């Protein structure tokens, strides 16, 4: 069965860095786009970033552009999110999600989600 | 940037039909998806490509999308359906609605 397991979250000071990881299993990882989606405490869902099958296409929300970097290792079935210059407003639970994306058709939906890893940015 | 607007809350009596709307400019020309999130849990996809239900999602969940509005309909609403619901679409990038809290009372 499909499993997505995030790790790497924690407490970090403003301006600091953190690297999140997502271990995928139960499906052919390289056949899917992957995304990071976050949810601030008591707030709604916010898409953060996606990466295409082999990593040739990347996209970021304006709120994280220039600070976050998404990457994937298809040989290891893993997804990563390098987060730099962290701000208080980046505090959230970060979810890894399998992205059934067909950008040319304007289609993207998330059929499997991990359990999330919490990130707290505070001094 | 593209925006999706949902009502903050919807209430329904058990056994009745709940409708949750999602509005966006020309949304009917895009694909809409819907997610259910219960407290402390990860979101679950309940509708994709406007009307399709993933395996394991009860038939009482249905979706439609036309004009500027996508609608999630829950027929014969049960207490277990009480949750937050989010719509989502693609417009150059992924967009989520602000979420609707469904109360079954």
Concise description?
Chain A is built from no helices and 11 strands.
Low-confidence stretches of chain B: none
Helix content of chain A: under 10%
Tell how many strands the DSSP assignment of chain B holds: 9
Shape of chain B: globular
Question: What is the string of SSEs of chain A from the N terminus onward?
Answer: EEEEEEEEEEE
Radius of gyration of chain A: 14 Å
Oligomer: heterodimer
Q: Which two chains touch over the largest interface?
A: A-B, 25 and 25 residues
Q: Which percent band covers the strand fraction of chain A?
A: over 45%
Structural class of chain A: mainly beta
Helix-and-strand structural type of chain B: mainly beta
Secondary structure elements and pairings:
The complex is a heterodimer of chains A (about 120) and B (about 100).
Chain A: E1 3-7, E2 10-12, E3 18-25, E4 33-39, E5 45-51, E6 58-60, E7 68-73, E8 78-83, E9 92-102, E10 107-113, E11 117-121
Parallel strand pairs in A: 2-11
Antiparallel strand pairs in A: 1-3, 3-8, 4-5, 4-9, 5-6, 7-8, 9-10, 9-11
Chain B: E1 9-12, E2 18-23, E3 32-37, E4 44-47, E5 61-66, E6 69-74, E7 83-91, E8 93-96, E9 100-104
Parallel strand pairs in B: 1-9
Antiparallel strand pairs in B: 2-6, 3-4, 3-7, 5-6, 7-8, 7-9
Explain how this protein is built.
The complex is a heterodimer of chains A (123) and B (105). Chain A is mainly β and 123 residues long. Chain A has strands at 3-7, 10-12, 18-25, 33-39, 45-51, 58-60, 68-73, 78-83, 92-102, 107-113, 117-121. In chain A, a hairpin with a 5-residue loop joins strand 4 and strand 5 (45-51). Chain A is globular. Chain B is mostly beta strands. Chain B has no helices and 9 strands. Chain B has strands at residues 9-12, 18-23, 32-37, 44-47, 61-66, 69-74, 83-91, 93-96, 100-104. In chain B, strands 1, 3, 4, 7, 8 and 9 form a 6-stranded mixed sheet that branches. A 3-stranded antiparallel sheet of chain B has the order 2-6-5, with no helix packed on it. Chain B is globular and about 35 Å long. Chain B starts with 8 loop residues before the first strand and ends with a strand. The chains are: A mainly beta (123), B mainly beta (105). The A-B interface holds A 35, 37, 44-47, 50, 59, 61-62, 95, 100-101, 103, 105-111, 113-116 and B 1, 30-31, 33, 35, 37, 42-45, 48-49, 54, 84, 86, 88, 90-91, 93-99.
